[in-house]
Design a protein that fits this description.
The complex is a heterodimer of chains A (112) and B (115). Helix content of chain A is 0%, strand content 46%. Chain A has no helices and nine strands. In chain A, the strands form two sheets. In chain A, strands 1-9-8-3-4 form a five-stranded mixed beta sheet, with no helix packed on it. A four-stranded antiparallel beta sheet of chain A has the order 2-7-6-5, with no helix packed on it. Chain A is globular and about 40 Å long. With 115 residues, chain B is an all-beta fold. Chain B contains no helices and eleven strands. In chain B, the strands form two sheets. In chain B, strands 2, 4, 5, 6, 9, 10 and 11 form a seven-stranded mixed beta sheet that branches. In chain B, strands 1-3-8-7 form a four-stranded antiparallel beta sheet, with no helix packed on it. The radius of gyration of chain B is 13 Å and the shape is globular. The termini of chain B are far apart. The mean pLDDT of chain B is 92. The chains are: A mainly beta (112), B mainly beta (115). At the A-B interface, strand 4 of A face strand 4, strand 5, strand 9 and strand 10 of B.
Chain lengths: 112, 115
Amino acid sequence: DAKTTQPTSMDCAEGRAANLPCNHSTISGNEYVYWYRQIHSQGPQYIIHGLKNNETNEMASLIITEDRKSSTLILPHATLRDTAVYYCIVRPILRGAQKLVFGQGTRLTINP
Amino acid sequence: IAGITQAPTSQILAAGRRMTLRCTQDMRHNAMYWYRQDLGLGLRLIHYSNTAGTTGKGEVPDGYSVSRANTDDFPLTLASAVPSQTSVYFCASSLLAGGSNNEQFFGPGTRLTVL
């Protein structure tokens, strides 16, 4: 799987948009970008994923650059409950179960 | 039940004892997974199952066994627990084993301490 690079930590004010970057410069054509988060003492939670087009769901938006070497997860109106570690994961489309390789992630703190 | 559940929430276990961690999902997902999470090591896959009746080894399977008798349940057994198996264990499931829309949904975890 392609390696990802994320900032160790970020801060964001409550109510503002939180923009979390991820570099995946070695991504292959058959690899998707997935985002998960883990709130303290809870299991990881799926947020969103995409291949090359920008994606949006009820939780967040995912912006992937045209060359697919980086992406940004956007939480449009961050709340205190969004404080968590956010993981950017790149994984291929394959048959059969695949492990998720969680790196160190970005620790996002939402401040009141 | 809604989603994926795990039991027990936490357990303290004497070394050498046998322990089964339970995992149940009601989403009719085909694939299920067991991970362990340790500080500084992230989540590591222990075992997985593509569909009922099949299982496979992940990256850290030694000391653990699983079974998948039906779609809903995927128990993880430690035959003879050792202190290095102290960890937080997460069960996960996904609708499909592969493909592009196989996001994994995680349970709340089991915190296991082996003394």
